[in-house]
Every structure is written in structure tokens, then in C-alpha cells.
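Tutorial, part two.
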Amino acid sequence: MSHSRRAFLASIAGTASLAAGVRAAAQAPGAGKWDLAWMDTLKGRHKQLYDLMWHTLRPNTLNPPTNYFEIHEELSGLKFPDVNVVIGANSSCMPINASDALWAKYMIGERYKITDPATGKPAVRNVYLGSATSPTGGTVRGLQARGAVFMMCNKALQGVSRDWARDLAVSPSDLHAELVAGMNPGVKVVPALTWAVGTLQERGFTYEKL
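Running the prediction step on this input gives:
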């Protein structure tokens, strides 16, 4: 085989190898800016997804996932990692994933008509968060202590950013970055809640709309 022929074939092989590498990278889970590796860690025997899409927040909002954990442990002694719970929120339930700092700065209690039971006034703290030192009951921290994962829809955060930015005369992109950074510790921001709901169902999660 001539030198030019060998060089030509080597060039073709190299191009094919490069193309395959590009395709593999593009198809890899979590490719790009989204870290979705946490989904791969949820391999419990029992897996339940709670969808807060279009849900109206109320004091007992987090009772169903709390009951799910408690009854599994009562009946079979199973808990995390054998029991997995994921709770997804969009714009109507964004407050449940927002830090106390965001509640205070952007008057979330007033915006969403959520009253603080301790004061009887619009809440300036996340009333769903619960205690950091003794997380119990149907609270965010109580559920996180049991292994629950809270998700936040990025499409919803973008919409909230645009709406609030008009009222506040600020940059929507800057506000969006602040909202993402101001989610509660452990909250997973996903590209879109509808996508995440389908993806988790494909991974064996049963579905319950709240």
C-alpha cells in the first residue's frame, strides 16, 4: 500500500473516531451545564415522585411524602436508600425551594399570599423549611433528612425572573442567577420540570400529583 493511501485511510479513521467521541459526549447524561448525576444514585426498591406543578401551597403540603416515608418504615422497616422520594416544583411552588434570604428580600409571603403562623403576617421566612437542628414532620429539612430530593424547574425560575424584574426594574438574567443561587441547600435545579418528571418515571418512579 502506498504512503498516500495509508495516510488517507488514517485520516478517515481519525475523523470517524473524533466524530464518535463528539457524539458520545453529546449523548452523555448531564452533558453541558446540567449536573444530573444525582438521578443515577436513586436506586431504591420503592421510588415515588411528587409533582407540585400548578399546586397551591398550604400548611400541610408536605404531608403526603412524609407519610410515604413513615408508612414504609412502619410496615417493612425500609427507609432511604431503599425508599426514594423526589418532590418537584414550578413557579407556583417556587417558595418551598427558596431560602429565607429570598423570602425576606423579595417579600415572597406577600407575593404568594402565605402567612407566617408565628406572626399572622405575610411570611418573610420560608415557613416550610423547618428546623436545621431538629428536622421533623412535614418540612423541607425533615424530608431531606429522610433522603428526599427537592427539584426546581429552571423554566419556571426564568419566568419568575422576568415577572419580578418588570416590577423591580432589574435585569431578568441577573435576577435569575440570584434565584438559582438562593435555592435551599440540596435543591436540584433541572432544565424543565416536565422533562424531569418524565425522566424519573422512565427510571421507575411512580407518580403522584399534589
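The chain is about 45% helix and 10% strand. In part three we will examine how such features are distributed along the chain.
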